[in-house]
Amino acid sequence: MTEFRLADYEFKALVEVEGQPRGAILDFADADERSNRYLAKVWQKLAGALSNHHSLTDDDAHCPSWTKWKPLEWSQQNVPARQKFVAWYGEVLAGFVNLQPDFPSEYQSGTTIVYIEHLAAFPGYLTSQIWNRKLTYLGVPLVAFSVAQSKHQGFSGVVGLHVDSAAMIFYNRLPAILGFPVFHPPRYDVSGPSPQRDKAKTQAYLEMIPEAAVQILEAHHV
Amino acid sequence: MSKTPRLGSAPTWARNIAGREADFDVDCTAGIQPDFAPRLPVRVIPVSHQNSLSAATVRDVIDRTQRIVTYAAYEVVNGIRPDFADLRSVDEPIVRYATLQIEPFEEGSFVIPTVLKESPTRILSRGTEREFTGSQIVQRFAEAMCTAGEQGANASIGLVQSIESLGAILRREVERIEYFPIGLPNMADHCQKITVDSAYINRVTETRKQRQDPEVIADHLIGTLTAVDLSTGKLKLSVNGQTINGTFSLFMTDLLVESLRKSIRLEGVVEYHNQVPRYIRAFFAEPVER
């Protein structure tokens, strides 16, 4: 059996270059002072700008909920089990995932998986009323990287996560994007890990099918 | 150091969506927003949108906001006493509980990002040590500010006068002050942004002048709580077989729900007709052991 090496995998978003789709290769790294500075000085200010736009136009109802997120606080918070990874595209902080290993599987009794606590694409790479974005489909490499981390840490590649109704649209479309079933049917009333725990019950819980984890890794192998 | 973005061939999955890219690419953001410390950002809008304010004005906004918040904390702990107006008599634990902290300012704005403690505080309240949270203060602050200009407003006179004192700032360099209580459950939409301008202050002043009514006095009633409507903040109390309607402050919600169909002592402003209680605006509640 060959050893699993993260270096053998490449995680790409989509970018259009001269009318042709190309792969935008993301460089994943641990969150650090540099990424925290970027979160404070660029990420949160973009989110704030979009929030202000909706406020000034009396359109708060359509303001995306992620503009209220405080990713810098999450990065600086001392949650012992939280593993914090960021994805760079050149000098742009293209996304981040916060993972928690050893989360009990809802579908395979007695086994544990990696829980995706937060997953987010750079505000500038999300659709908004005030800017056009450059990279698209960042959700795919962010999920794929989480799967690779799950495999790397001995959890078979399976991940679980809670999603709200807005994000569910993306995760419902993921099978069509990847070309195979990805998640078990959503479950409700499932607690998350600390610190959210029961607060997570307000959202649907998705857990990856083990075969999908294998296929995702195959699709991202260099 | 400048790092060039790396490009490669299109990912293998891209062919599954070829020609339909726009149909599938939506927000992937996933996660649970954690609880944060209760926040009360204060936005100061200078007259004619000037880009500077005197230090004294900023100091006064903070000082007067802190006074209102301390009164609100006092009322959360001790209930609303309409004639209370002496902050010097507030116990030190309540003063500490009500202390506003200020987070780093954003560039290019007059938003004062005030925040209260996230962790609950235990304070002696009428002989019993109880746990209080910063959210209760923000809730009480918002409720008092939103209703201060309405008939029958429930607040101590000191709190009302502190709100009125914001008027002095408005007469100088400031057009209006906006408060944004953040992260509160059960908060009415119109309380999510509280705008203090001259018209608001005039309404508060008028309401204060109308507070004195010989048929309306600070009092208490003991009876059985027969109904609580959380959506409207109304209650019914049965006293000696007579049903008395009333209202309550939202920070009392948990205790009232627990006390439903039980004996309770309500303090507040009671309206009498021919010396018979008809209506209560309850500011404080405590269970009565029978």
Task: Explain the overall architecture.
The complex is a heterodimer of chains A (222) and B (290). With 222 residues, chain A is of the alpha+beta class. Chain A is built from five helices and eight strands. Chain A has one domain: Gcn5-related N-acetyltransferase (GNAT) (Aminopeptidase). An eight-stranded mixed β-sheet of chain A has the order 6-1-2-3-4-5-7-8, with helices on both faces. Chain A is globular and about 50 Å long. Chain B is 28% helix and 31% strand. Chain B has seven helices and 14 strands. Chain B has a five-stranded antiparallel β-sheet with strand order 4-5-3-8-9. In chain B, helix 2 packs antiparallel against helix 5. The N and C termini of chain B lie far apart (75 Å). The chains are: A alpha+beta (222), B alpha+beta (290). The interface between A and B is large, with 66 and 31 residues.
Short description:
The complex is a heterodimer of chains A (222) and B (290). By secondary structure, chain A is an alpha+beta fold.
Which secondary structure elements does this structure contain, and how are they paired or packed?
The complex is a heterodimer of chains A (222) and B (290).
Chain A: E1 11-17, E2 20-30, H1 33-56, H2 71-76, E3 83-89, E4 92-104, E5 112-121, E6 135-136, H3 139-152, E7 159-163, H4 165-178, E8 204-207, H5 210-220
Chain B: E1 6-8, H1 21-24, E2 30-31, E3 39-46, H2 55-78, H3 92-97, E4 101-102, E5 111-115, E6 121-125, E7 128-132, H4 134-147, H5 157-170, E8 174-179, E9 194-196, H6 198-209, E10 216-229, E11 234-239, E12 242-248, H7 253-258, E13 263-273, E14 276-287
Parallel strand pairs in B: 12-14
Antiparallel strand pairs in B: 3-5, 3-8, 4-5, 6-7, 8-9, 10-11, 10-13, 11-12, 13-14
Helix pairs in contact in B: 2-4, 2-5, 5-6
Q: Please compute the radius of gyration of chain A using only Cα atoms.
A: 17 Å
The helix/strand class of chain A is alpha+beta
Average pLDDT taken over every residue of chain B? 87
CATH class identity of chain A = Alpha Beta
Q: Sketch the topology of chain B as an H/E string, one letter per element.
A: EHEEHHEEEEHHEEHEEEHEE
- CATH fold title of chain A: Aminopeptidase
Helix % of chain B is 25-40%
Q: Assign a percent range to the helix content of chain A.
A: 25-40%
Largest sheet of chain B: 5 strands, antiparallel
Rg of chain B, nearest Å: 24 Å
